[in-house]
Amino acid sequence: MKEERKTYCISHGKDVDGIASASIVKLANGGKTFLVNYDKIIETLEKIPDNANVYVCDLGMNDSISERFIEECNRITKKGKFTYIDHHILKPSTKKKILKAKVKLIHSRKECAGVLTYELLKKKVPKEAAILACYAAITDYMDHQQIAKSLISNYDRQLVLLESTMLAYALAYDGAKPQFGNKIVDAFQELSFPHEIKDVPELANKQAERMKNIMKTVNKEAKSYKNFACMESSNPTIGLVANMIIGELNVPVAFAYRHNTINGHYEMSFRARYDSKAELGKIVARITPELGGMGGGHNKACGARIPDNKLNKFIKLFSAELNK
Question: At a CB cut-off of 8 Å and minimum separation 6, what does 268 contact?
């Protein structure tokens, strides 16, 4: 009797998009979920057996890991199956190698990973699972895209906005710890709403209070440049801080950065208004390697990591790119 392949899903554990993607994969296939950040992709893949059904969701490729990632793809596809679902920038040369490794590639920058995952697996999940894709699209600032708009139109928009924000804020307050993310994935197997999941409403309220207090500091601490503003923050969710900067200072682009004194680098999160023409993911992916860092994402939101002695140089390069 042929042994049935076990499904493993490795998904981004820091935001709703990655957690929604993982939840949809588990609804469709069962199996084991790993919620990770970009620096844990390879070591997690290495633990997965050859004869497996593997999904990797919402984890973009960069030059520092792409070759090892492709090696793992080749190892697994010799006996198993590998599906890669993502919406971040993907170099044509890397895409070609991934396809050559016989990976099923679902890639589009037009929709978030949660929507792409739902579209791929919607015949294998309850129709109610579509709301998970809606949560992903809203919190990843891609709810204006064609498929996402269509899915959201099937629900009361205020309800979906409330549930999405509550979930995003709860994850933000908890620091997106894997154990909390896995609790969300498990609750979504029962198609629970975020407000029904233990600790989510309480943590969301705490994060809302935290954000109210941050608003008071932005005008004092943020530094304004020609087309953007930025500030340092100890908040674990610097992406939300970047959003605050945009609103408080009325700038098209903003980023927040947090100092990791143990590893000697700055973690950075970038946001842009809907009407901004800046392609943040491309800009950040282009300039961070020059500084010994890494980064990328999509047009309106992305992240980066740079050595802590390169911040001023980064700001100069970033400003030059925005002003082209």
Answer: 238, 255, 256, 257, 258, 284, 295, 303, 304, 305, 306
